[in-house]
Every structure is written in structure tokens, then in C-alpha cells.
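During the second year of the project, the team shifted from modelling isolated chains to modelling whole assemblies. The rationale, set out in the original proposal, was that interfaces cannot be judged from single-chain predictions alone. As a representative example for this report, we include one of the complexes processed in the last quarter. Its constituent sequences, exactly as entered into the pipeline, are reproduced here:
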Amino acid sequence: MAHHDDLLQLAHESVRKTSPNQAELRRAVSTVYYALFHLLVSETTLNWSRDTSRNALGRMFDHGLMKRVSDRVADSKRTPFTGEDPTSVSELRWVAEAFAQLQERRHIADYDNGTLWTPLEAVVAVARAEAAFIVWDKIKHTNIAQEYLVSLHSAPRLRHGAFSLRP
Amino acid sequence: MGQVSDLPISPLLGGSDNSFVHLQTGFINRTEVENAVDQFIRTLGSEVVRVRYNIGEDWSGDTALYFRVVLADSVAVDRKTFVDAAERVSAAFRERLQPLENWGLFPHVNFRSNAEQAELNDPKWA
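Output from the structure prediction step:
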């Protein structure tokens, strides 16, 4: 079982407890974000043929860039995906939106002690990540999903293609 | 019906009803956003008890819409029913309100049950 699967399972078990406390709820919300983060990092680095370099490559991902790319992919106006399969496009947008939402939830869970969490809020976050794993598995071999992975790793210098990142 | 600005908003984002919200890509009219959101909320089904929202900044400083949706206890009978209801409502925000496409505002939609909110009595969700 890969690292991201373990993280997802850990979060799932945390929210299945009868009466999870605030620390457990926060931990679960934070953990599901990292499950999805590491899934996408792992999927990207798998494309690197020299496997001994994959961990080093994986450490170069930037959460902020990944958020900006995901925001853009979720936005049908900025990223229309003209001519692509509508189902795959819709599913990729869903994954991108889930990533950006979970990342924001993770920041609140980790840093904002003024926000209280309920069990069902955490359940929704975990379910969203679980669904993202399933959807990603369906679309991961499509060109648009692979382009998304490349964009998560590095911002293009030139404005061309689907994922240019000019502010 | 939503209550806007029940959380502190940065002075950079303006405060009056007719203020403009500054985005990286330009300006949007706060009143226009609020009117559209309020109108949209009225179309949500009976499983939605209440929606509160505000315009704020995410962790990276980007302007975003934060929705706090209280769902009826009838959909909180088990986790799957609640998650399914939350996904239906999330899809409505994404597909019918389209805040990203219309205003460049990412929607963060969070859910609690009515019973959970009653127990916490959290003013941000009341």
C-alpha cells in the first residue's frame, strides 16, 4: 500500500470513532489533504523514469502553485478544455476543486484554533478525498489529467497550452 | 438567506454595501455578488436549513467565498446520506452559482447538521 493510501485510511478511521475530539477531527481533516497531495505528487513522479530520483522530485512541489493550478483547472472560463471529452473534463475539474478545498480546510484545521469542527464536517472532508482518489483513478491516463500533473509541479514560463498561470 | 460579512473582512476588501472587492484580476462589485448569492440560496431545497457566507481571503491571500451550510437532521441519519446531500448542494453551487466563472471567487462550502450547530451554537453559522 502506498503512503497516500495509508494516510487516507488513517483519516477514515479517525472519523469513524464514536465521539472524536477536536484534535482527532483536525488531524483527520489535515491528513486527508496530505493523502490527496501525496497521491498527486506520486502520480507525477511516476512519470520520472529514474526511480531513485523520484523522492527528490516529490519534495519540490509547492502547495501554493498546486492551489493556483487547481483553481484555474476548476474554472471553466479560464480553462475551457475545448475539444476534450466532457466527462473527463468534468471529473478533472472535480478533483482539482476537491484539492483546493481540502488544502484550505487543512490550513484552518492546523492553524485556526478558533474554528470548531463537527464530526460531519470532517466526514465530508474525508469522503471528498476518498471520492477524489476514485475519480482520479478513472481519468489519470487522459492527456488532460497528465497535463494537470505537469502543471502542478512547475509553472510554465510561456503562456500557451491549457494551464498557463499568468495572474 | 445569507448574511454577508459576519466575519471580519480585510480593509483591502472594502466594507460598505457598494464596495468593490479587489481581486488579482481586477474588481468585482460586492453587491452584485451578494444579490446573486442570496437569490441562489433561495433556490436550494428543503434539506438546506440555512446558509451563511462571507467574502474573505484564503491562506494564500486570494479572495474567496466561504459558505457555511446547515443541513436538515433528516439527511444526517447516517454518514452516507449526509455526504450525498452535501455533494448535491456542492454541485449546485458549482454548476448554478458558478462563482469562479462569474467573479473569479473560489467557493469553499462547508456543512454541518442542524443538531451539530444547535449543540455548538456557533455564531458564524447561526
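Residues 77 and 113 of chain B are 10 Å apart (CA to CA). Chain B is about 35% helix and 30% strand.
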